[in-house]
Amino acid sequence: MDRVAAFLVAARTTQSLLNASAVSDSWTEPSALPGFTVGGLAEHLAGQILTTARVLTEPPSTDELVPLSEHYSRAAWVGADRDAEPNVIIRDSGEQSAAEGPQALASRVAQALADLERGLPAESADRLIRPPAGPWSLSLHDFLLTRMMEMVVHCDDLAYSLRLDTPSFPEPVRDPVLALLVQLSIRRHGTAAVVRALTRVERAPLSIAAF
């Protein structure tokens, strides 16, 4: 399964969770993430699909192309406190969008996913995309991985908020996402800390969180 196919599988899995009755039933309730209602978190999760559909309607980016490691070094939200401006903006955006309600979101996601299933396979993996954290460019291949990571992480957040089982993603989604998170964790905590957390409970650090 190539990156495009993996992304589409992740997007369909995300859509299924977003369409769960528990999401609409708990739309205005607090989520597991402080500052996010269930609706706001659902909007942020759906944004990984909606943003991808939107950027493909735009001309290719002309900004500097950077690798994923540089992308996460530059992104203002990485390592920022919960109440830092970039994270407040992310939460506020989700909460404002949540005012549309779950049915409207479901409709937008369905249309975006249909557009992506129709158009994304024809795109070049080298197409340059400006990510929301820009201004810089990622290859489409790398951009899709950033969206897959967000979907895997926030599907767990949303499912946990609703006491649902976390969605299961197939290996072509799971493995590159976990590899990316391990790389980011090593950058933040060092190789030894990550190795110990995975293999040595008696000397594992308290956290190897990637962000």
Explain what this protein looks like in three dimensions:
The protein has 211 residues and is mostly helical. It has one domain: dinb family like domain (Four Helix Bundle (Hemerythrin (Met), subunit A), Up-down Bundle). Helices cover 61% and strands 2% of the residues. The chain is built from 9 helices and 2 strands; from the N terminus they run ααααααββααα. β1 and β2 form a beta hairpin. The longest helix has 22 residues. The chain starts with a helix and ends in a 12-residue tail after the last helix. The relative contact order is 0.19.
How would you concisely characterize the structure shown here?
The protein is mainly α. It contains nine helices and two strands, in the order H-H-H-H-H-H-E-E-H-H-H. It is 61% helix and 2% strand.
